[in-house]
Design brief:
The complex is a heterodimer of chains A (106) and B (123). Chain A is mostly beta strands. Chain A is 0% helix and 50% strand. The chains are: A mainly beta (106), B mainly beta (123).
Chain lengths: 106, 123
Amino acid sequence: DIQMTQSPSSLSASVGDRVTITCRAGQSIAIYLNWYQQKPGKAPKLLIYAASSLQSGVPSRFSGSGSGTDFTLTISSLQPEDFAAYYCQQTYSTPSFGQGTKLEIK
Amino acid sequence: QVQLQQSGPGLVKPSQTLSLTCAISGDSVSSSGAAWNWIRQSPSRGLEWLGRTYYRSKWHNDYAVSVKSRITINPDTSKNQFSLQLNSVTPEDTAMYFCASGDGALGHAFDIWGQGTMITVSS
């Protein structure tokens, strides 16, 4: 199994802030890295696939970058609906998830 | 538009078998571009991928090492659905269980999810 490590585990920010979440893979995964948003009581929602491709319908304030072992998710200007948990996932081999980042309102 | 609808009991007794079904609409379980996954989520384990089934000229299954001795995922082409069976459950299997489709065109990312089923293992 490929270990995925996210940081930070929690983050406080304000509406309008620029926020970056990082994800590190235990070995190179090329660009097989995806990002999800999850709100309480709901299934995760795909935001970014293949490290930097924006899923259809996802606002352009979300962006992803990276390759190999180090990846980032950036939200350029936080909106009230963005306060949620975020997870990275690798699909280079049998899938695995990071432990999550909880984004809270400051 | 692809949709996944989960069904199954929410309470399972220890040592018994957990069984869930995920019905597919808008796609085929035999689609050559998709993989059909089961994932669970608990506060102690976070999001944990359990396994998948997919068709590429023949049926394939992959399972997580953590549950490999206890899990079976089967496609049902007649009903266009897939199922999860987890044997010999313990309270540690208490979690929210999701099915999800992985799209090969999206690097196998999970673009469609079921609504989730809360499973409690208790006598």
